């Protein structure tokens, strides 16, 4: 069954340890994608995120994240995820393997999550929800600022990812 991600009900968030003592959280406001469900699990997932849609509720920090120190949104306008496999962990629970392309580099990512639904919504659509979490080492994509050099220790290399999404059955 094919599904289209509903951007207005989808959240892609991240958290990075700042100075080793607190978490800085952020999110992307422009996400689109598709998925195929097979036996109730996300079998094939493809998603695109507009890097310029990054937001961290601090205008200065948001602009810094858009710069060449981090996402370099002028050169790399999108992040792409493509699943490569899925494992069933239990009823509605999964481990999704995939490739994340960011900053001109592709690396492996593993996410664990759950599927909710499908259900029929009040407007005649069929919907499914899913949530997933994982972590990446941002250095694998060339994001070294705050980890090495004069700003070493400002921001951790490990980035926690949280995805909460809703998708509508494609007709």
Task: Explain what you see.
With 171 residues, this protein is mostly beta strands. The chain has a single domain (2-169), classed as Beta Barrel (Lipocalin), CATH 2.40.128.110. The protein has one helix and eleven strands; from the N terminus they run ββββββαβββββ. The longest helix is centred in the middle third of the chain and has 8 residues, at 59-66. The chain is elongated and about 55 Å long. The mean pLDDT is 95.
List the helices and strands and how they pair.
Elements: E1 2-5, E2 11-18, E3 22-28, E4 31-38, E5 41-50, E6 54-55, H1 59-66, E7 78-90, E8 93-102, E9 105-120, E10 126-137, E11 155-169
Antiparallel strand pairs: 1-4, 1-11, 2-3, 2-11, 3-6, 4-5, 5-7, 7-8, 8-9, 9-10, 10-11
Topology-level CATH name: Lipocalin
* Major sheet details: 8 strands, antiparallel, barrel
- Provide the CATH superfamily: Lipid/polyisoprenoid-binding, YceI-like
Tell me the overall shape. elongated
Strand order across the largest sheet: 1-4-5-7-8-9-10-11
Number of strands: 11
Helix content: under 10%
Report the top-level CATH class. Answer: Mainly Beta
Which structural class fits the helix and strand makeup?
mainly beta
